[in-house]
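Hello K.,

You asked for the raw outputs rather than the summary table, so here they are, unedited. I folded two proteins back to back in the same session to keep the settings identical. This is the first:
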Amino acid sequence: MSSLTWDDLFVDAALLDFNGLLVEWPGKVTGQVRLIGASAFGDLFFERRSGEVVKLDMLDGDVHFVADDFQRFSELMNSREWQQEHLLSEGVALLKDKGVLRGKGQFYGFAPHPIFTGAIDWSKVMPLDAVVWNSICAQSVASAATP
């Protein structure tokens, strides 16, 4: 399995238009926040004014607690188990081994979105522009929630 770099697993906030991405998720993120970055799959990690770190999950559209503060978040980021669960590091390594690489400002996306299939299909992954994948996720989650 390929060795991974931080750039393989995480997209720095400086490479993303956070406000442009949040437009797709009205009401999901409220209050003053600071973007930290995103997983290779587009999950947005941000810090609330209270210091708490949370993520907007692209697979279910929910905001999930990550850590009490940025220092704890940094510690978690260095945990292999946490990387496997929250950054899908094993999937990133699989994609890298297969030569499926993403460029700067891109996320890995799934077609169809896992909310419709109930599972991640690693054979259906492709690099997509961050704004495009984010929009697909928001629309997919909204569509799946509509009876």
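The second followed immediately with the same parameters:
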Amino acid sequence: MNDGFPAAAELKFDDISLGQTYEITRSFSVQDVLAFAALSGDYSPLHVDREFAAGTEFGAQVVHGVLLASLFSQLVGMRVPGKHALYLGQDLTFRRPVMIDETVRAVAKVVGKSDATRTLVLNTEIRSIDDKVIVIGTAKVKVRDDSPVGQRVSLAASIPFDSGRRVAIVTGASRGMGAQIAKTLALRGFAVAVNYFRNEERALSVVREIELGGGVAFAVQADVRDVESVSALITQVVKTLGAPRVLVNAAVGEFVNRPINDLRWTDFEAHMAYQVKAVLQLCQGVYPHMKSMGGGAIINILSQVTAGVPATGMADYVCAKNALMGLSKAMAAEWAEDMIRVNMVSPGLTRTELTEHYQERVFKMEAARTPLKRIATPADVASAVAYFAGEDAAFLTGVNLSVTGGQVML
């Protein structure tokens, strides 16, 4: 039911192709400008006072810039993709003003598409009738999964027990890199425990995709920073799938760029809780199971920040990742006699939900300075993890594999 509102397009992610262009034409009346002034509280006389505006260099009332930019919201919410849109960001540059009752044309062109995050990058612009540029910018839009919210996959209890299956636990597997790792391991024949913290729906979506591909998986909630929660996770995995032969530590907290002088010790503790405390608890938890089976593989996700000069504004994150590297090497040395291999994967900048707030120019600049001329993808990282999880890496432990397209060469 839309209560008489115009119907939005219902484009799915696969319906949208690079190069597609969408446009609308519109003019804004005095009533539109006054209504927006009342809504926004911006009663600048340049917009609402005809006599004042007539005496300025513009000679007439100017439409609010943000009101003009609302045309991009209309394009995203009604056209591309429409119903399933979630606006993630928009940068704007205003080239010239638009007067009341002036007709303009707003255009959105699809110039980027990420399968891993189901996001689009749109070049957006507004032009005058004589084709002069008025506003330019870039939009980031997520195409939401259109599956019904209440839809559920098979329960863990329905998974038949198989003592011979290879079992993998992937933490932080409801989104981004962790989700791709879980799906890739499933394709390689592992039964996967998809760990999530809060977003059950996303975890179940990953499980559903694995099952549709013929794999075995179930979603398991745990706060990996809490030792009792970790213990319950491992118990549930052993009961449902069997003893874990592979553990992938991919869970990560949110991070915000801040200069060192603005950081507090609690900021460091927040990252250390995920990168050291959680990893230690998980590894200690799976250790007896792996030892009893004659060995196993642990893969810890690090970052390019552990090599060379780190980016500024990330001291808390950099410290935590370097601490994880030290812990990984210590475990690799100590547990080698038990045939438990501990390796690391260090991706460069990767487009995931954690980095979607970055400006598009950041990704372009990083790709330009990468020898292979692109940034890493979650699939690149997942392939490296799957290699360490398999028998082809049976004689490797304590190795840190840089997935950076050549930016790190050792």
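The two ends are 60 Å apart (CA to CA).

Happy to rerun anything if the numbers look odd on your end.

Regards,
P.
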